Amino acid sequence: MLLRIEDIDAPRVVKDADRWIMDDLTWLGLDWDGDAVYQSQRLDAYEEALRRLRERGLVYPCFCSRADIRAASAPNEGDGFLIYPGTCRRLSAGERESRVIRGDRHSWRLVVPDGAPADALGCASSHVDDAAQAMHAALAVGLPRVVCFADRVFGPQRFDLPRQLGDVVVRRSDGLFAYQLAVSVDDMAMGVTQIVRGRDLLRSTAIQLYVRRCLGSADMPEFAHLPLIDAADGRRMAKRLNSLDLGAMREHGDDPRAVVGYCAWLLRLVGEPRPMTPQELLPLFSWDAVAADTADRVVDVDMLLR
Predict the structure, then answer these.
(1) Backbone φ, ψ for residue 111 (5° rounding)
(2) Pairing of strands 222-226, 194-198
(3) Is 13 a domain residue?
(4) Boundary (domain end) residue, out of 173, 204, 226
(5) What CA–CA distance (Å, rounded) separates 176 from 10?
(6) What is the CATH number of the domain that holds 81?
(7) What is the pLDDT of residues 157-204, one digit of tens each?
(8) Alpha carbon 167 to chain centroid, angstroms
(9) What is the rounded average pLDDT of the residues 243-262?
């Protein structure tokens, strides 16, 4: 397991949050290989990646504000994600250059292909290895309009880039590198082979696979997206639930084994919550069990803290 501290958004970084994360992991009985990687120390790598994208003509300056984009776009698929309408993509090269020289505030966006969708990207296969091989073959012949991958939990995924994602920001107008570029560069540099995260990032996976291809990589990690955890009122878990903050639980004297066991139960790996260590959980783990129930989970605080 690799530990990466994603502190690239400097204005939002909380002092000592990295140490809290490490302390929480240690308390749960989890460790990681090697030193933690800090994104704030890898700005040169992101700058180099952006330079390569610019050399290939795959990015362009965008002068639109968030208000401009909201006014010109409709939310996609009811989830609030805005598809950039391509306003600045249609500007002439001369107009783009003159506005940059003039100092107009701008971000940098990555171009996604237009044209007929490419269908041979692995979506027809439900097998992870078959999908990966098809994806590699399709990426080898050029930049795809359609990105597909087989998820360990949610199965085959297919994203039409211009229709569902649009030209994504890789450097923000405030000069900070965007999450999608930074994590893609880091995953390649760190040799990440398996990524497990929430289902709300399925769309991000398609973006990141495309970013990787634009940077010359056809390798595809194995992905597993998990159901989200909701509070009892049906809303997503948030920091407002201080009682479930791991640091607060540790200070309160709660048993970390109870947390691990409860998570195992949420993932349908055990029939009922019971205290266990990560080492005791390992032989019980099964992706088939996790994938058998993809509904979001609701946390019962009383059950967890009893």
Answers:
(1) -75, 135
(2) parallel
(3) no
(4) 226
(5) 8
(6) 3.40.50.620
(7) 999 999 999 999 999 999 999 999 999 999 999 999 999 999 999 999
(8) 17
(9) 89
Same domain, 155 and 284: no
Q: Which amino acid, 277?
A: T
Residue count (the chain): 306
**Domains: count for the chain:** 2
Residue type, 305: L
The tens digit of pLDDT for each residue in 25-63 reads: 999 999 999 999 999 999 999 999 999 999 999 999 999
Rounded to an integer, the average pLDDT of 78-84 is 73
Which has the higher per-residue pLDDT, 127 or 100?
Answer: 100
Q: State the alpha helices, DSSP H only, in 109-201.
A: 128-140, 179-190
Per the structure, the complete domain to which residue 291 belongs is given by: 229-305
Show the tokens assigned to 248.
Answer: 């607060």
99's tokens = 């506005």
Which residues neighbour 231 within 8 Å (Cβ) at sequence distance 6 or greater? Answer: 237, 238, 241, 298, 299
Name beta bridge partners: 223.
151, 195
Instruction: Note the pTM of the prediction, 2 decimals.
Output: 0.87
